[in-house]
Amino acid sequence: MKIANPLAAAILGLALLLAGRAQQNKSGSLTALDYIEIQQLANRYAQAIDTCANNGYDYADLYTADGKFTDNFTEEGFGKRGLVRAEGREALARAAGGGSLGCKNVGWKDWSHLMVNHVITPAPGGAKGRVYLVVIGEKGPNHIQRFGGYEDFYVKTGDGWRIKSRTHVRAKAWSNPLLQSPDLN
């Protein structure tokens, strides 16, 4: 009988520990592996869009099946306070220059996208992220420019972490309001 009590206590303790961890995950906590996997999305994003890999589908597959890319950076997108440029796998592949476009006229073919200062925070249903976008080569091989940044929402799927939504924002979108200009550039 004495053996049953310590065993029962151990089983109860393990059950409470597992229940606590399950509750933590529901409340929006992330593991170290979650952070690493989400950071890898930013790295793979840059390489996929720079190379039009797999005819743009490597880029599209970084998103959920219903993922969307919103422009709040260009004059048109900023003027409309956000313009959805691509939603769903086929549209996202085209947004990368691939799909039916066949990677023939990719506007950034000589650019390199760099994602820097990635900040990831837990959020109900997934995680939020902000990352600066730096571009090399837009106006020649030695040209470096901050090109705003991305505001993301990530979800964990059966295939790992994916981008549910990504919004391209202007450089001062996250600045203290006292430092912002009306156009956020």
Report on this structure.
The protein is of the alpha+beta class and 185 residues long. It has two domains: 1-27; 31-179, Nuclear Transport Factor 2, Chain: A (Roll), CATH 3.10.450. Helix content is 32%, strand content 34%. The chain has five helices and six strands. It has helices at 4-26, 32-51, 57-60, 75-79, 89-95, and strands at 63-72, 83-87, 112-123, 126-136, 144-157, 160-169. The protein has a six-stranded mixed sheet. A hairpin with a 7-residue loop joins strand 4 and strand 5. The protein is globular and about 75 Å long. The termini are far apart. 27% of the residues are buried. Mean pLDDT is 87; it is low at 14-25.
What's the β-strand tally? 6
Q: Supply the number of helical segments.
A: 5
Mean pLDDT: 87
Question: Could you spell the SSE succession in H and E letters?
Answer: HHHEHEHEEEE
Quaternary structure state of the chains depicted = single chain
Quick gist of this model?
By secondary structure, the chain is α+β, with helices and mostly antiparallel strands. The protein is 32% helix and 34% strand.
